[in-house]
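B., you asked whether I could sanity-check this one before it goes into the benchmark set. Here's the sequence:
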Amino acid sequence: MNKYYQQLLECFKSWAMDATDFLKGNISVFGDDVAFSKDDIFAYLFAPRGNDCDSMRKQCLEIIFSGLSVVTERLLQDHLSGGILYNKLDDDCFVEETKSVSKRKLVCLTIK
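And here's what the prediction gave me:
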């Protein structure tokens, strides 16, 4: 999940700087890994509304994504790049060491 958290944060930060792509419906956060349905509701939400309305929607989205990026960084800091759990679960040595440990205790081992 760490790579998905990182991708999500990068998208939030990108859209906080410029939400134009998001407004156009280009919201492929996880690439081909996660299918996204573009149905009638999607078409309605992302349909252009006019210059004034679209610029206000863009500004609102940028503020929302700015807040989401801060919250995402705060809540998932251990799982993001530079965090103590970022590459830990992919490490073969770590997997071998913790193979017999219950899943509840696994988090405590990684923090020590």
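One thing to flag: The chain has two domains: 2-81, 87-112. Otherwise nothing jumped out at me.
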